[in-house]
Design a protein that fits this description.
This protein is of the alpha+beta class and 206 residues long. The protein has one domain: Protein Transport Mog1p, Chain A. Helices cover 32% and strands 31% of the residues. It is built from 3 helices and 11 strands. The radius of gyration is 30 Å and the shape is globular. About 8% of the residues have low confidence. InterPro entries: GldD-like (IPR019850). Keywords: Lipoprotein, Signal.
Length: 206
């Protein structure tokens, strides 16, 4: 056998071995089970829940988080005594709107209906909306709504004495982070809102 034929045959053998090796790798790779890694979220360190009294002059008073700040509502539709409870470190905001009923039963019914409609607008994205009632220490009944899913507002409520005062609140986050990763923060602020309702008092003469 000539030298040229020997070299050609050697190259063919090497090529065949390479192909067989590649094929074996492909088979092994196909048989290897793939286990997806669980979705990871950034760790959120939450502060201790402590409270402070509302000092601004409004027809209502309550205790709110020591880690939050009170800011007046600066939107174009804002009315007197509309405020925001802002959590700078958490990107959370509880919007509060207030109405003086002045004994107007029709206004009360309209406000309750509007509050329910605003909550209902989230039904497109929410896969669950749970409603509950909280009786406050002063005897008022607060209706609270917990929304689950990728909704812009995860917790809403309204509370009234049925004759003069009507207060509505909604929790929002100024971030695009998914609600799954915000779950600890949502629970943190929800507890603050329940504390707000339990310490809510209407100011006499206002």
């Amino acid at each position: 056998m000539s030298e040229i034929k020997k070299r050609t045959r050697t190259k063919l053998v090497k090529l065949q071995l390479g192909l067989w090796f590649a094929l074996a790798l492909a088979v092994v790779s196909c048989e290897t089970e793939y286990t997806p890694k669980p979705k990871g979220y950034n760790r959120i360190d939450l502060p201790a829940q402590t409270y402070q009294p509302l000092k601004e002059a409004h027809p209502y008073t309550f205790e709110f988080s020591s880690h939050a700040k009170i800011r007046p509502d600066s939107s174009k539709i804002a009315q007197p005594h509309w405020i925001n409870i802002i959590y700078p470190s958490l990107g959370a905001n509880v919007q509060l709107t207030y109405k003086d009923l002045n004994g107007n039963t029709k206004m009360l019914n309209d406000l309750v209906e509007d509050a329910r409609k605003l909550t209902g607008k989230h039904q497109i994205k929410a896969y669950a909306i749970e409603e509950a009632e909280i009786k406050t220490p002063t005897g008022d009944i607060a209706s609270v709504f917990e929304l689950e899913g990728e909704v812009p507002s995860q917790f809403q409520f309204y509370v009234t004495d049925s004759t003069k005062h009507f207060l509505r609140g909604a929790l929002y986050f100024r971030t695009a982070t998914q609600n799954d990763s915000l779950a600890p923060v949502i629970e943190f602020v929800k507890k603050d809102i329940v504390h707000l309702l339990n310490t809510l008092k209407w100011q006499k003469g206002k």
